[in-house]
């Protein structure tokens, strides 16, 4: 088990050299006058007589240190409005963004600095004799332990207090005499043993050290008062509550407001007898005040050390509902919500007991209290505190509401998990906060799996992983990076980046659980929360140590895992294609690995972080699950490190029955290429020609990876229909709905899955949306017909053709049917408008909805129908239904106003739909009239959700009507009018999304200067100071407006404060869109091989051929062919048809064998092609059909007697339209090839890189070919043995022998008549572009001593193996080229051709 670590030095620095040991808070609350007064007592360990605390927004009356009045210097952080800068230097979006960075970072830095400086002179008399005596006893105790522990020093109680590692208050070690008296006997025994062992010297030294610590302990008494508090603590009506905003605890009581400072608390609150005070810890007692009997004092005690941020308080006319399931929990709310509270918390004990059972420990913080307050009162949906949590009452629901159940249970379970990991066990440093956040999310998913189902848990994790892969593109999402954690002052947990970090933390921990096993991971969590554990903090280093010791993970693996997944950013991108070899019964996987992180930081995104190249790889092996006819088999064969492009072979276990296919001699190929099945063009025959049903990559989500897998359509259909895993089904639907050409087989598969009641309801909803997306005129709107038919089969009366009354007893079926109207509304005809049948269907559902006799509420049911209207596109045919639809919406608005429904959900959907209709038919509807209809819903008497939705809709209409600048001005106006903190935050989030969708790069005229200054005033104003979430999002708005990322990541910590913004960087002008992942470039290799630029003019860089292209930019195309000089026009035409464009080419499947390499030319210009693995010469994948580089070698056949030479032809073809045609000439000057030795076949290569010999030469391919030949010979012998008695076979054999004999005799006579020309003379290399005509009997070639330059896009062959020695006239080696068939990897377009080059 990991040793307890001492608190870092910066923890003490946060308190100005003071470490808090214990704090007592005694306050009286006057609700009528919104007044808080009282005092706090802080026991600090200070090295100097001067130390600092945090305090703000309060009036400090006096400060006493050890009972003596002292001087203090108090400078509040907040300054008045009049002290704000005038922003005179702001001239454009860029300067405004720089000023926002300066203002924001200055405010954060100032708030983190202690501002209450206390000066006192040390008086030894202030230390009581009792403290000295107790200190002496403690030293004797520790000295006795020295011997027991082999002379190693043991942490004293004061050390534990300083380090925040003890679970008791300071007075338990110093002032609690009862506990000390109970241990006197044990201490005396240890003292005697110590004296006997002669440890007097150690005793004296330890006594001096302990006395020094006791002398440095000070008791600070601060008397203060708060009037009209607005920050940290809030008065709303007759309710007062605190919020757990970052660094806002010191705004309602003096403290050391730092996450690294933790101590126990004693809390006393005096309120009116009409109110209840709820705070942290256990309620010891409540007593009437002696001075004023109309007031009552509530006394709480929290023994667990926590930071000041987790101290919370709620005062109001609350109703307390103890849990009825024998758990130590109280549920609290206001009176109007009591009925909903009873129904909501009915299942809370499931989560409570689930965590206690899994962690094998009781809830550590005593009585757990859940307080539910109206949304307009809260700052966050859930505000955490030690043993408390303040929720928004919006999550409460009665037994009639279905849609809110799942979300509410998950939110309550997550808040409870944060009590275990986040408060009880806290992060040692800001860099370790990801670990506690991830463990809390892990516990929550454990609850989801147990009580909401495994399908729900896996589906949520799959969608969360997809979100992380899309967003993990910059260093801002690195989990344990100083630049992304400590340097951001806690803002890394706010906004979209905070959500991504939380999701990524859970995914990383789940990967670790997969590696070590669930039992080992559970043991680690039990060790962390064990009551006898010395430390109550957790660090990444300690967790890594536990993963090694308890989880049995090897140190080399952890040494790679944590730096790659935790300390850096980026997720792997895997692109895979398959090919099945029927003869070998083997699957070949072409794999390309990339990374979502940007290779280099965006120059204007302020990012100087540490995104790493995807080439670094990730530890471990990824599994591939092959579903065959005989079953499913897992193959952990995909390495996550090493070369970015690889080919992996997987042996199939199943075999098809032998099937003899007779072919004519004309279609039979001697090279055996017909043995390979081309999956890309024979998709419908896959189940017949191969034992493969479907293939899955990483089926158990062992990696947080973005996977793009290409397999035939029929295999995707098999996966959807036969695989029971929800992730597999969702992946299949996602691929099928994006197919460029849809068949009825795909539509039928989606429809069958939608009708399958055994399938998971969330995936069935995906199938419904897929049917809507795939519905088109090409398929006769088959998807729309299937959706309508499915709905009517469940909800319509077949006799009358009308909807039946609602019945929601089948909850999964309810969710699926609820999504059908929205899916129908997404269907579009050829004119991009909604079909008439879709509009009529939705209108019919809305018109005849009947909820009589249904025990459940239909508020969400109606809301889904209304929102579906907003998705309709009204063409000329649909405009006739618009008036009827608007009347229905108006009727629902009046009904919900007369009889308010649940949380105003129906009104919110009606307002949103009206705005969408107004934007779609703005030419027919007056926007001002719509705004007049919506504006009354902003009145303060309306429900909070309705009021906020009306404000957001009006901002959207202003954007559509007048532009972004007008929308921002309206936002500033609404924020100023909005009284609720949470409402202002929601408006800011909405405007941030608008800016991200509307900002045009380099357009400085989108936002006026006055609007920018207004945003800056809001950023630096009181409203933003009271609400840190509003302030952060306003800062993000200004950054996005300037084209930057909405984060503080990369912003320099040392900045000059506004209003003057100095030294504005000139490179901060490009938009940093962090939502689009960018692939990293491979490492560039330097070689001596001439580049393509030297032979063929190009306009773009090149890239290694072993890296699969995944970008859309155009690249050059280079093709190399070896063919005969006197080729026919038909062969020439076939060659032209052989040009590949990365797609499926039917000509490539013919008798011609070719090799094609597709490599994006984005690397160094002088790089050679580099391909490796599994006996292939070239690997090829094209994700952009317009850009590829190819090299093909045609079949080398013996010509007739008039053709006595062969020609090596190199042609270059470019897809770049910018270059003139003469730059793409296929000719290569003859001296470049003829005047240098060893150049006859250097254009054809089988080597993997420039330094390696070909595998065929090395013997690998030769052995494999010999093995195949041996099998073929055995098969032929068996056939001959069976046919030796067949007269017809014997006659054919005799005729064949005679024919061969005659051909040999004829060839011999021709050679004698032609002067016995050597084979080398018939192999003279001639460039294709040459205008010379070869003579019938050419002389022997004369070659120079220099190697020939070759195209860098060509594979290379060692000249040692292919050089023809022309100095001799005797028997010379002949070169034989055998071309085996190509294999096309479906989807990836990876073309592989094997070459055997033999010397004989």
From TrEMBL:
Basic residues biased stretches: 1265-1278
Residues annotated as domain Transcription initiation factor TFIID subunit 2 Ig-like: 569-712
Region (Disordered): 119-160, 173-212, 597-621, 1067-1109, 1125-1152, 1221-1369
A GO CC annotation given for this chain: transcription factor TFIID complex
Main location: nucleus
Gene3D superfamilies named in the record: Neutral Protease Domain 2, tricorn interacting facor f3 domain
Transmembrane segments: none
GO molecular function: chromatin binding; metallopeptidase activity; RNA polymerase II general transcription initiation factor activity; transcription cis-regulatory region binding; zinc ion binding
Keyword terms: Nucleus, Transcription, Transcription regulation
A Pfam family per the record: Peptidase_M1
Location of the Peptidase M1 membrane alanine aminopeptidase domain: 353-550
Subcellular location: Nucleus
Start-end of Basic and acidic residues biased regions: 135-150, 180-190, 198-212, 601-615, 1132-1147, 1279-1292, 1300-1323
Biological process, per Gene Ontology: transcription initiation at RNA polymerase II promoter
All copies of domain Transcription initiation factor TFIID subunit 2 TPR repeats, residue ranges: 715-986
Domain of life: Eukaryota
Comp. bias regions, Polar residues: 119-130, 1073-1091, 1242-1255, 1353-1366
Family: Belongs to the TAF2 family.
Protein name from the UniProt record: Transcription initiation factor TFIID subunit 2
